[in-house]
Amino acid sequence: MCGLCGIFGLEAHWTDDPGATPVSRQADRAHRARVANTVLGLFGLKLTPWADRFTLAGRTGKSAVVGHLGAVWPTAEKLAGRPCDPLDPAVIERVEHLAARR
Amino acid sequence: MSGGWGEPVTVNLLTGFLGSGKTSLLKRLLSLPSLTDTAVLINEFGEVGLDHLLVEEVDEEVVLLKSGCVCCTIRGDLRDAIGGLMGKMRRGEVPAFSRLVIETTGLADPAPIVATLQAEPSLRHHVRLGNVVTVVDAVDGLHNLDGFPEALRQAAVADRIVVSKTDLAATDAIDALERRLHELNPTALFHRSDMESAAPELLLLQDVHDLEGRSAEVRRWLAAETSHAVAEHGHHHVDRSRHGEIRAFCLTADEPVDWAAFGLWLTMLLNRHGSEILRVKGLLDIAGVERPVVVQGVQHTVHRPEHLERWPDEARTRLVVIARNLEPALVERSFRAFLGLTARVAAPA
């Protein structure tokens, strides 16, 4: 477990929507997956809501279950086989490009 | 009185370099009526037993950690020590306490302790982190900041900084030290240990979890933006001074922020650079959320967000970052790029 996650099991994580109601939680999880996939796609990965968790899958079929956004990145790096660094200028440039295409 | 398995026990970290006067401050704090239900954990290190003797008057509530350094054994010893103490309280073997002060070693990095409190499953629902209080010696403080990365890190993560031994230093030297500390950590509240008017219990009692004090606490964080305004390019303020490679800077956003995009960015950043990010503190204007959201973290650990009832000033996202070896311009560019993503995806239903 990484220090950021602070989670064993399925307890709330800080990234859970602070304005979410029980009714909106499922939609919120779907929204988080959509936002995450814009970046995860750069690493050949896709996040899919699954019950009250997510599955994270690579193009080769490797996959893992993650509980929340905090757990995505250590798993993503294992599946992608490379660092997922938001300060990598190449990553920033591609994210900027994605944002500009909206 | 709280404690037991009901209300979480507030845990304060008391840190500071070797010989800075942590234990003297602790003795003074524990003598205050408002802090009588406080338990203490001290760490035996170096001059074995010296600290223990000084705080021995706290009787049964003192527990000595067996190993030398909190940081190296944090998961086991600290968990067991806190759990053991809380177990004794539940069984009525020690008086009920609502607050626990952990006095670290002079060479401690507070971050692993914070991580344990947040991440350890047997603790995380029963404790909450209060203020990190760092004691800096007015006589040797500047020298220690220059010479020891541990001293820098302790000051950088602090919520409260107590400048000690002010009776032994010249006023100019104290002022210079405080200026340096403020540049290093513009969000901390400063006290001088000789100031009777400083209401020292406020070092521990008033924090961001406290509804009454939360707004004032956040105002101080936000003041860091203007007090350190070095408008290099619009939204990006970088402290002129460098402390080793530790720098404080402020990220801002004028438009409401998508929570998912912010969470994605910060989790990704902390996963890769968490050990370099000493503190993150800020107030966020979240799209679709009426009240401002308070976010704060120490290295890899982010606290559960809290709400403010209302904006202390304008509704605008501001995030103060205290980081080591990270280029502020690059962090800002990354922050903006990720926040720009959300227009590409449909809003939640």
UniProtKB/TrEMBL annotation, chain A:
What is the name listed in the Swiss-Prot or TrEMBL entry for this protein? Uncharacterized protein
In terms of superkingdom, the source organism counts as Bacteria
Automatic annotation (TrEMBL), chain B:
- Write down the SMART domains for this protein, in alphabetical order: CobW_C
**One MF term in the entry's GO annotations:** hydrolase activity
Which part of the chain is the CobW C-terminal domain? 246-339
CDD domains for this protein: CobW-like
- Reactions it catalyzes: GTP + H2O = GDP + phosphate + H(+)
One of the record's GO cellular component terms: cytoplasm
Q: Which UniProt keywords apply?
A: Chaperone, Hydrolase, Nucleotide-binding
| A Pfam cross-reference name | CobW_C
Free-text function comment from the UniProt entry: Zinc chaperone that directly transfers zinc cofactor to target proteins, thereby activating them. Zinc is transferred from the CXCC motif in the GTPase domain to the zinc binding site in target proteins in a process requiring GTP hydrolysis.
Q: Which family does it belong to?
A: Belongs to the SIMIBI class G3E GTPase family. ZNG1 subfamily.
Query: This protein is called what?
Result: GTP-binding protein
